[in-house]
Amino acid sequence: MFVTEAYAQAAGAPASDPLTMLLPMVLIFGIFYFLVIRPQNKRMKDHKAKIASVKRGDDVATGGGIVGKVVHVREDKIEVEIAPNVRVKVLKGTLSDILTKPEAISATPKEAK
After folding, report:
1. Are 66 and 90 in contact (CB under 8 A)?
2. Strands of the 77-83 sheet, one edge to the other
3. SS3 104
4. What is the 3-state secondary structure (H, E, C) of 17-33?
5. What's the farthest any 2 CA atoms get from each other in the chain?
6. Half-sphere exposure of residue 76, counting CA atoms within 13 Å on the CB side?
7. Which of 25, 46, 53, 112 has an alpha carbon 20 to 30 Å from 99's alpha carbon atom?
8. Distances from the Cα of 3 to the Cα of 12, 90, 95, angstroms
């Protein structure tokens, strides 16, 4: 009915291999890299390229919610007209989006003959 001491002591701890302990951590990091880090870096790179290509006449939106048309572009600042004769200087780093979509305009289907 009771377990004897001989049986209880016979079961030993399995020897742990450092490779089997490290392999799951490497796999988790690899999955994390491909699902989170890599796409985020790609989005950040695309956003920086978009902000660097801002030009006069583009409609832009800032992180603070200001929406306007670019009047003048400098190296680190742009001048945005938010109303007639109301201009604001904004840092390029605060731009969240360029609202002008030249690709969408040029991609419209041609009229059927």
Report:
1. yes
2. 86-91, 77-83, 67-73, 59-62, 95-98
3. helix
4. CHHHHHHHHHHHHHHHH
5. 95
6. 0
7. 112
8. 16, 78, 72
Give residue-wise pLDDT tens across range 10-49.
Answer: 555 566 788 888 999 999 999 999 999 999 999 999 999 9
Pairwise CA distance, residues 48 & 61, whole Å: 15
Q: How many residues does the chain have?
A: 113
Q: Which two tokens stand for residue 14?
A: 């399995």
End-to-end CA distance of the chain: 95
Tokens of 102: 């030249």
The single-letter DSSP state of residue 97 is E
